[in-house]
Amino acid sequence: MSQIDQFLNSLKRSLKAKNILYRDLAKALNLSESSVKRILSNKSLSLERLEEICRVTDISFSEVVRSANLEEANQAFTLTDEQEKALAENARLLHYFMMLQEGKTPQKIEREYQIASSESKKYLFQLDRLNLIELHPRDKVKLKHHGFLRFRRDGPVGKALFEQTKTNYLNYDFKSEDYLRFSFIKLSAPTLAKYKTKLERLMMEIQEESRYEAEHNVAVTDVGILLAFRPWQHSYMSAIKKKE
User: Are residues 67 and 114 in the same domain?
Assistant: First the structure.
């Protein structure tokens, strides 16, 4: 993602945080809503127009820049096979590392979770040896990677998580407040590739939203989001066979 894309995403998040809709911004700028949508998707947005948007919405330009810089630092990253293998072999170590990635300190983890200080220190030393963190005196931690941790599908942790997804995630009675939408359709390879890219962008947008809410202490709920497609046909749809 380019820096311009990051900046525009940051500006859109700032508008959303202030509950400013495109039609509200359009009215303040004396433009049509379609014009505003075009401006916010146009990478040639002028500084004059940007200054005007910040003025009429009372949004700080520096805050938008800061948030864009955070987005740049929060791109996806993966781990080595050795690192993933160590995490896959110890569920508590994996959970501990994930909490560190979420910004929790060792002290906070010890206070809020069922873990002894001795076990916490053991995990810190292990993560330091794996080059996942830098451990400093008084259990101060510096993360080696910043951003969204993405486990590879064919990696040790990825395989374990995928097995859990297959056996547990869909084995659930989805309620009205949950969301489940399934469709079987026919699409060409180029169209599938196009929508795969769109789904990747959607997931990144959701992850960015999650990061923003975490930074602003918004009350949240743990949610699992599954985006997938594969060659498949329901058995009902093959009850009547095609003629050879």
Answer: no
Hey, which bits of the chain come out as E strands?
Answer: 76-77, 133-136, 140-143, 148-149
Residues 90 and 114 grouped into a single domain: yes
Its domain, for residue 48, covers 3-72
In this prediction, residue 179 carries a pLDDT of 92
DSSP assignment of 130-164:
TTSEEEEGGGEEEES--SEE---TTSHHHHHHHHH
Work out the angle between the directed axes of helices 91-101 and 81-88 (0-180°, nearest 10).
120
Q: Which secondary-structure segment (H or E) carries 82?
A: helix 81-88
Characterize 146-167 residue by residue with b for buried, 16 or more Cβ atoms within 10 angstroms of its Cβ, and e for exposed.
Answer: ebbbebeeebbbbebbeeeeee
The pLDDT, as a whole number, for residue 33 is 87
Residues 63 and 82 placed together within one structural domain of the fold: no
| The total number of structural domains that make up the chain | 2
Q: What is the mean pLDDT of each run of 10 residues along the chain (244 residues)?
A: 72 84 89 86 77 87 70 69 94 94 91 94 97 94 84 89 86 90 90 90 82 78 91 80 74
First CA to last CA distance, the chain: 48
Report pLDDT for 75.
65
